[in-house]
Amino acid sequence: MKFFPLLLLFCAPLLSQDLSASFPDRFIHTMIYESGNIKSFLLPEELVASEQFGISYSGVKNKFLISNDIDPEIKEGIKNGLLHFDLKNEILKNNYSRLTFSVPEKNFQRQYYFKDSLLISAPAYFSAGWIIITSRYFEFHVSDPSSINEYSIKNLDNFVDNISKRLGLSSKDLALLSDKKIKYFLCRDEAEIKNLTGFNTMGMYYLPYDYLITIYNSHYHELLHLLMNFKLKTLPLYTLP
């Protein structure tokens, strides 16, 4: 009995830190209750990639979560005890993991990928191991090397130069694009695009990270969307397919 008070004294600090909460639990709790800094869960390089062009959207607190946040009505339902959620954490190869968040009553699901227990984007996970080619303005992440060539790369660089004049981009703007590079994910087929984006599409401007993800080696339409947003910088709304 003499040792019992000492045991309580030793355990109290541990209990106050809630060490029983697993990493997935803490991440989802922060997402739902906005009780902490969600950016602290993100791989630092991913945050840099999301913010490198200075593009932001009104009312969007965490740009890197666009299209992959938990819907506000779902959050409120969980907070009020009206909805319940399930978590499934899968350990993948090479220190990756996948967390699946689902709310059966609403047929709602989100998946989050982690590297060394830090949040990354789906494009970062699914493109791991792809070859990387750089040009004046682009960093190409290529699934199939035979799908890209010098002609298409040159045309994309020239397109940026030509459109930059129409948009009135400054030499400083072009220097930033040249330094940071536009990330262009060239997929083999629509199945690969769906892995990277979550959408059935032939190509898209991936807003959370300002990526171009496409099966076309010269996708000017989506590139123009990016350059217009880069010109405007702060936008009152955003759209998805």
SSE map:
Elements (H helix, E strand, L loop, with lengths): L2 H14 L6 H11 L10 H8 L4 E2 L14 H8 L6 E6 L4 E8 L4 E8 L2 E3 L1 H5 L4 E4 L3 E5 L7 H18 L3 H10 L1 E5 L3 H8 L5 E4 L4 E4 L5 H13 L1 E2 L6
Helix pairs in contact: 6-9
Primary descriptors:
single chain; 241 residues; alpha/beta; five-stranded mixed sheet; four-stranded antiparallel sheet; 11 strands; globular; disordered N terminus
Measure the end-to-end span: 66 Å
Give the count of helical stretches: 9
Which of globular, elongated, flat, extended, rod-shaped describes the shape? globular
Strand order of the largest sheet: 6-7-8-10-9
Q: What is the percentage of strand-forming residues? A: 15-25%
SSE order, as H and E?
A: HHHEHEEEEHEEHHEHEEHE
Largest β sheet strand count, sense and barrel closure: 5 strands, mixed
- Structural class, from helix and strand content? alpha/beta
Report the helical percentage: 25-40%
Ranges with pLDDT <50 over ≥5 residues?
1-20
How would you describe this protein?
By secondary structure, the chain is of the alpha/beta class. Helix content is 39%, strand content 21%. It has nine helices and eleven strands. Strands 6-7-8-10-9 form a five-stranded mixed β-sheet, with helices on both faces. Strands 2-3-4-5 form a four-stranded antiparallel β-sheet. A two-stranded parallel sheet has the order 1-11. The longest helix is centred in the middle third of the chain and has 18 residues, at 150-167. It is globular and about 55 Å long. The termini are far apart.
